[in-house]
Amino acid sequence: MPGSGKTYKIAVIAGDGIGLEVMPEGLRCLQAASKKHGFTLSLTEFDFASCDYYEKNGKMLPDDWVELLKPFDAIYFGAVGDPRRYPDHITLWGSLLQFRRQFDQYVNLRPVRLIPGVQSPLALRKPGDEKIDFWVVRENTEGEYSEIGGRIFTGTSREFVTQETIMTRIGTDRILDYAFKLAQGRPRKLLTSATKSNGISITMPYWDERVVEMSKKFPDVKVEKYHIDILTAHFVARPQSFDVVVGSNLFGDILSDLGPAITGTIGIAPSGNINPTGEWPSLFEPVHGSAPDIYGKKIANPVGMIWAGQMMLLHLGETAAAEDMLSAIEQVLGRGDFSEITPDMGGKGRTEILGRAIEKAILDM
Ligand code: ATP
Ligand code: MG
């Protein structure tokens, strides 16, 4: 296969805990896909954004991290933090959340896709049932997670606490634009908006209003809206009916954890923090954290890391390679070989065994 012949510069940050164990498997599979599809991944590994780096340097990132990372096409990230060593407000706030803000990664994107061979905690599904396969698009920079607010009369009976939600025209329209375009590119072209305009009476009606306004630019996309409470119920009761779901920072956060939960183990779910303009690098990572409880046992499921690599290839435009990677994941998990799949999926496999099985499936595609 001739392939695109392109070279992509990827910053590789393994981080902490099982991030260090699943990263080699992700890279192994990415290399297989790039070899097969005729493009090059130029990888540069960094040791910052980890507890070890913090221990040596007293900070999570070097002073010139923005200039260091800006030239990369994407950041491939493992996991950060170990609450037994340092609190999350140092490790997480000092690294991932800095990236998210500085690199204006205003889209958080997660697939919700039930892979054959993976048991959903929902009722048993039969062969031939409609597929569970949709995207959750979360606004990643504003909304309910502002730090604007305050607390007065602390400790008295007149204690008063407030925190504001920020919704800007630019911030709202750009996340909706991304979600509409994503829906437009899919066969069903259905966009579901999460709202709560019957309870949150100023910002959420504004969100709804922008959805209606933006929908005029995408007449071929069908739009529906649900209040967040009933929407979570629909996620569980009829996940097969969704295509692309978009929500504010808080609602998107809730839905993007619920989605992967109904499609099996946290060990397989990936996530993208995306700057669609391309001005700054986007970041791809597994949903799971550093899992100190299993670190060192070499049983961490590498599929979340590998699937995050697959999302990175989609983002870079290497669609055929990305399709192969996803098919390879489906093929290996689908055959459900107990000697390959990791204990979180009920098997006896090890991180590297499962990684190598998927690598081989990619090469054999
Ligand atoms: P963080 O705060 O970084 O999200 P956490 O401890 O809250 O970390 P995880 O690190 O994601 O959350 O771990 C949650 C649970 O899921 C742990 O019991 C962990 O062992 C398990 N787990 C997480 N990732 C994997 C994986 N890749 N394979 C198997 N088990 C995993
Ligand atoms: Mg957690």
Automatic annotation (TrEMBL):
<dbReference type="InterPro" id="IPR050501">
    <property type="entry name" value="ICDH/IPMDH"/>
</dbReference>
<keyword id="KW-0520">NAD</keyword>
<dbReference type="InterPro" id="IPR011829">
    <property type="entry name" value="TTC_DH"/>
</dbReference>
<keyword id="KW-0479">Metal-binding</keyword>
<dbReference type="GO" id="GO:0046553">
    <property type="term" value="F:D-malate dehydrogenase (decarboxylating) (NAD+) activity"/>
</dbReference>
<dbReference type="InterPro" id="IPR024084">
    <property type="entry name" value="IsoPropMal-DH-like_dom"/>
</dbReference>
<dbReference type="GO" id="GO:0000287">
    <property type="term" value="F:magnesium ion binding"/>
</dbReference>
<keyword id="KW-0464">Manganese</keyword>
<protein>
    <recommendedName>
        <fullName>D-malate dehydrogenase (decarboxylating)</fullName>
        <ecNumber>1.1.1.83</ecNumber>
    </recommendedName>
</protein>
<dbReference type="Pfam" id="PF00180">
    <property type="entry name" value="Iso_dh"/>
</dbReference>
<dbReference type="InterPro" id="IPR019818">
    <property type="entry name" value="IsoCit/isopropylmalate_DH_CS"/>
</dbReference>
<dbReference type="GO" id="GO:0051287">
    <property type="term" value="F:NAD binding"/>
</dbReference>
<comment type="similarity">
    <text>Belongs to the isocitrate and isopropylmalate dehydrogenases family.</text>
</comment>
<keyword id="KW-0560">Oxidoreductase</keyword>
<feature type="domain" description="Isopropylmalate dehydrogenase-like">
    <location>
        <begin position="9"/>
        <end position="358"/>
    </location>
</feature>
<keyword id="KW-0460">Magnesium</keyword>
